[in-house]
Amino acid sequence: MSRHRIVRTMDYNDEYDGYDDIYGHSVEDEHCISPTDAQQWLYDRARGQQSISAFISKNKDIQEEDADEEEDEDAAFEKARRDSESFQMPQLDEIEQAKLSSCVDEVRSVVGDAVSERRIVETSMKFDYDMQKILDEILNEETKKSAKPAVNRMKAPPAPVLPKTVSKTVATPPPKISLKEPRRGFEIPSPKVPSSPVVSGRNTPVDISGDDISRSSATLFKVSKEQAVRNARQLYEKERADQKSHIHMIVIGHVDAGKSTLMGHLLYDTGNVSQRVMHKHEQESKKLGKQSFMYAWVLDETGEERARGITMDVGQSRIETKTKIVTLLDAPGHKDFIPNMISGATQADVALLVVDATRGEFESGFELGGQTREHAILVRSLGVNQLGVVINKLDTVGWSQERFTEIVMKLKSFLKLAGFKDSDVSFTPCSGLTGENLTKKAQESALTSWYSGPHLLDVIENFKIPERAIDRPLRMSVSDIYKGTGSGFCISGRVETGVLCLNDKVLVGASREQAQVKSLTMNEFPQTCVFAGDQVSVTLPALDINNVTVGCIISDPQTPIPVTTRFQARIIVFNVKVPITMGFPVLLHHQSLIEPAVVCKLTASIHKSTGEVVKKKPRCLGNNSCALVELETSRPICIERYADFKELGRVMLRVAGVTIAAGMVTKIR
């Protein structure tokens, strides 16, 4: 059915029947509007123009006030900027400079950048670095400055009509503002490390004085009276006077150079491996068709190492000479296990570099990107300065003197460039498989015809005992963590400096959690005291295991180790495929610690020999260059300046499995 109407034939009278509002008819409204009320709905031109002009003028005044405020703020910021640029920091000593920079940073965190650097520095020195007085002075002055122009621009509001009963007004005093130092970050019970002396680069590292730290921290951590006044040197003479000197020796070199076989045969010849055990290794290696590995299995004990025929982790054993007890550390030679090698090298006092004299094998390990070069550089970067070079497998070339001389000449020039002195390096020909020239004078006529030097055991015997930093504050690097048989966790590591005794209180890691030593063991024997240079296991009960990681440092509560995320280092760059630029990501190796880091600043290129600045703020660092750089880690780490603790002031930088730089820490933030 159609819904459209036929308009032409429509009867409008019928269509609109019942409607009262037909056009032309008179209608009475139910609600009438009076003429007076109707005027409010009528537009008055004069009144409208007056209200519009008032609205425009009011908005204009508001905009002018806002513009004036913005101009004043811009002028204040511009003035502060000009003052900061033209202002020169006063020349102060290190302690005063650190106090000043700390005050400047705290004031900046409260007032921002509106106050000039000159004003902050002058006020800080005026009130002798008292934060409360400094903030009161600066904030009161800023409040007065901002209040005056605001009063001038504000129009007085119309006075309110008060009741007749009110005779006077009572002024209410303004609320008292309490200025407190803001709380930032997380709080740890440790001495406050001063920040940078340079305000324009507040993250720039600054030298930290150990004496200043010790004075401020002595009141934070309580130790026993016996621990506080202990004479480490007298205690060492009492405990170790009748014992042989103890050194750690790491065996390094390219993969398949024969390191494990050499050390296994040396252990067997010195009586540290029984005949029964060697017979067992011989029979098992014969079954697998690997009879030449029988001595290597003395140190390579795991099934995977024996199946693959390579060392994967650092193996430990002990030999005893006439005057020394030597802990042998057999390091892996494959490039995939260099982090394990570095972990072992951090424990070493001296090193043996094993090279393969076979034609082509020495060249592949030394010249074609092998590990001979890298291992030597790594141990030197970790502080090892005595090196014994063992030219192994010389029997494969008929004990050739020409081959021996050729290898010695190549290695001498390289090791000198790596930082080894000629007097601290020795060269010994031998054969790890046959045992020639290991523990007794050479018997092979082809060798004795031109070589009359010491055998390998004499070389180890002639190593000098490094000077132990026993009188320094305690520093122990953690290399392993495991659950002990009793209560608490056991932490294994090397005592780098100082002395540690039973019931001593220590600080653990970057969190500086305090713990007490329950037991000490060294070589599985309980000890009452351990000293610098010892590899020990410490049991710390009631310790949160989440606060302990491999690579952290255990320190003395009276002189805690600095904790930081940013520091400056003097580095030497090795062969790099891509130049080092600002923002370059690296893996930072510090003792047993492996931590991601970023090269956040290239401070200067310096001369290798003299240390003079060649160029400030270089754009990149290429091969064989020396520079000052700043490194930043993603989380806080424990680290020391090289000038304070040589043992903990060395770092290495690695990228994609290759060591690209090594250096020393010069400043700590």
Automatic annotation (TrEMBL):
The lineage of its organism: Eukaryota, Metazoa, Ecdysozoa, Arthropoda, Hexapoda. This is Tr-type G domain-containing protein. Residues 244-467 form the Tr-type G domain. It catalyses: GTP + H2O = GDP + phosphate + H(+). Keywords: Cytoplasm, GTP-binding, Hydrolase, Nucleotide-binding, Phosphoprotein, Protein biosynthesis, Translation regulation. Residues 76-85 have a biased composition (Basic and acidic residues). GO terms for biological process: post-transcriptional gene silencing; regulation of translation; sperm individualization; spermatocyte division; translation. Pfam families: GTP-eEF1A_C, GTP_EFTU, GTP_EFTU_D2, HBS1_N. Belongs to the TRAFAC class translation factor GTPase superfamily. Classic translation factor GTPase family. EF-Tu/EF-1A subfamily. InterPro entries: EFTu-like_2 (IPR004161), GTP-eEF1A_C (IPR054696), HBS1-like_N (IPR015033), HBS1-like_N_sf (IPR037189), P-loop_NTPase (IPR027417), T_Tr_GTP-bd_dom (IPR000795), TRAFAC_GTPase_members (IPR050100), Transl_B-barrel_sf (IPR009000). Residues 59-87, 146-211 are annotated as: Disordered. Residues 63-75 have a biased composition (Acidic residues). It comes from the Eukaryota. Its main location: cytoplasm. One of its GO terms (cellular component) is cytoplasm. Residues 189-200 have a biased composition (Low complexity). The gene is Dyak\GE20906. It is found in: Cytoplasm. One of its GO terms (molecular function) is GTPase activity. It comes from Drosophila yakuba.
